[in-house]
Amino acid sequence: MSDFRRTKAMFHLPEGVIYLDGNSLGPLPKAACDHVSDMMRNQWGEMLIGGWNKAGWMRLSTDIGDRIGRLIGAAKGSVITGDTLSIKVYQALASALELNPKRKVVLSDNGNFPSDLYMAQGLLHSLGSDYELRIVSPDNITENLTNDVAVLMLTEVDYRTGRRHDMKELTAQAHAKNVITIWDLAHSAGAIDVDLTAAKADFAIGCTYKYLNGGPGSPGFIYVAPKHADSLRPALSGWLGHEAPFAFDLEYRPGAGIERMRVGTPPVIALKSLEAALDIWDMVEMRDIRAKSMELCDLFISEVETRCPNLSLASPRDARNRGSQVSFRFREGFAAMQACIARGVIGDFRAPDIMRFGFTPLYIDEGDVITAAGIIEDVITNNLWDRPAYKIKGKIT
Amino acid sequence: MSDFRRTKAMFHLPEGVIYLDGNSLGPLPKAACDHVSDMMRNQWGEMLIGGWNKAGWMRLSTDIGDRIGRLIGAAKGSVITGDTLSIKVYQALASALELNPKRKVVLSDNGNFPSDLYMAQGLLHSLGSDYELRIVSPDNITENLTNDVAVLMLTEVDYRTGRRHDMKELTAQAHAKNVITIWDLAHSAGAIDVDLTAAKADFAIGCTYKYLNGGPGSPGFIYVAPKHADSLRPALSGWLGHEAPFAFDLEYRPGAGIERMRVGTPPVIALKSLEAALDIWDMVEMRDIRAKSMELCDLFISEVETRCPNLSLASPRDARNRGSQVSFRFREGFAAMQACIARGVIGDFRAPDIMRFGFTPLYIDEGDVITAAGIIEDVITNNLWDRPAYKIKGKIT
Predict the structure, then answer these.
(1) Is the overall model pTM greater than 0.95, yes or no?
(2) Strand-pair partners of A107
(3) Does the pLDDT value for residue B51 go beyond 60?
(4) B396 touches chain A (CB under 8 A)
(5) Which tens digit of pLDDT belongs to each residue from B263-306?
(6) Which of B281, B301, B329 is the last residue of a domain?
(7) Given 3-state DSSP classes, what are the helix, strand and coil percentages for chain B, each rounded to the nearest 5?
(8) Does A344 touch chain B (CB under 8 A)?
(9) CB contact set of B341 (below 8 Å; sequence gap of 6+)
(10) For site-directed labelling of B101, which of A155, A390, B220, B368 has its Cα 20 to 30 A away?
(11) CB-CB neighbours of A146 under 10 Å
(12) pLDDT digits (tens, 9 = 90+) for A69-103
């Protein structure tokens, strides 16, 4: 059984803060700073270039990939870290389209991250005018799986409402229509129980700075189903994805399996921070995380609805259809969130009116939920948001 | 006048080591570790998500870009950091090809980094079979600037021999034939006097873990000539290159100028290490670096040629045609380099027979050059390389 009192003690959480924005940027694992310092002083400082072998820097991308893989139901050797989530979207989509060369449509929904759609737009423009990005409502995926669709590209958990797609069911529907699937796990990895293998997903991508707590700008990751991994041509064919990077051949030859999804030199300092964050993840089981997260979110909904009747739930009420966040709509949501933040309850705001609160059992407990709900009640029922200073927009919160 | 005794004292250099491999991975700036720790503890730890604004994380990519820009003759606002060099090659080439849409040939040479050629191969494959990567000898660029060439993509300084292209002359020749230019500065930035503005280069890219000392896997950078910056369509169109990333629009609209070359979330921890490294660069002038580097390299050539007549110079003899490295050919170069490394002189080896030594006045002085030459002499003249342990290949050195 996962010990969440123990994991909570492993994070640095500022005095007086209840941090409900770990779905934007996870907090600092206490050990991360020393782990990074140790790498800088004792590996980079002392081993210099020799660190690539002696300190195992070259293996970090795959070693860390496997540790993330355990959290998302991916077999060993099917996940690699590096670059950013956006770059990994590009890699996945370019490869997926080549697996289905006669079809030219990428199907997605308007609950997807805009960045994923932007990356798709950039790629499709390069591929030519016969390609199309088709964006539908999240409720209309099934009927849009027509026989011109090459790839279904979705984010499992909506970043605004927390609405969760049924990955297994939609993947099965897609496969029945010979459509390749790409799942963005940005709000899934470390948040909910994902089983890529059972869902038969073809590709998945994600980031590590949200629920995984790797730090600001921590690298992305990509999963490729083992059955595809040895047949893909990487669009971003960099030297570290080459079969023999240090042969310095002039012709690209892809490395074995997931290795070909490497591009350039791995970001060692960032990977060390992520490594320390994953030490905490190694102590827990995702099924425990999911069970506790559902309890915390249900408790939060119940507390806020009781205390603040003028907030309306934007997230699915049934925990099974929800990620690890709860969103409420409130007309003055921006100002109200600023007022909450000023009182130590840090969530965030998504236009036009969504107040978003992320939960993770790793460092949030029932006491935090009750305290946060009380502060939100104070802000809402006493109109504490109604101050000019809280209404200045243009911030990232 | 740049004070190189002062800069040398700002690096951690292990006892008994003369580090002549800063062109693979620069050494640790003493201040980098504390600078990163401070960011992790006091910014990430205390400000959490608020760090993006309060600590200026969102501006780091351009602020650091401008500091690199000073070293390579780039105007303010024309350089941005992020991703890896390989990704930046892809961005530059995709945009360059769109500036010259009627032509389909990318011209490069076999002295270019293989990774740059690999990235080009990946991109051209995606663009279609009418595109061609044409690789010629570095001596034959001029006559190959034919009227089907869209883009000339070269690395200024050859990573094996240190041979330097004449950027200004080749750019002028290319422009005379309506060819767009991309210059890879991986072995130029911080090594030699680069003036992108005077050379009228269209694009440049580089990395920051070699001469700039940002640390293993430190991000890449890209320069776009101001005249092009507002007209480019980024192939890698990520959310942070969007005009309004936090509007979360479904349609991509490029940000102003160089901003559109951002892709995903910037790697803040890595950028902080680089920031500390650039504090040292802020203390020196590139013309002083170049003058001193030429002296050091000339001294090294003279010392090694006197002491080791069986090593043959692989680098140009005229310092003006050379980067900031000196390479010698020696049949048993791999084993000889291992023997040098075992004796504290760290250079590296490039197949088939090149012993490569990088020099930078920031932390290498005349005394180091003489001592290193003495150790190399000992290894070569006394056949100290002739031991089985030194002949095991497959290492990154």
Answers:
(1) yes
(2) A134, A152
(3) yes
(4) yes
(5) 999 999 999 999 999 999 999 999 999 999 999 999 999 999 99
(6) B281
(7) 45, 15, 40
(8) no
(9) A50, B347, B397
(10) B220
(11) 12
(12) 999 999 999 999 999 999 999 999 999 999 999 99
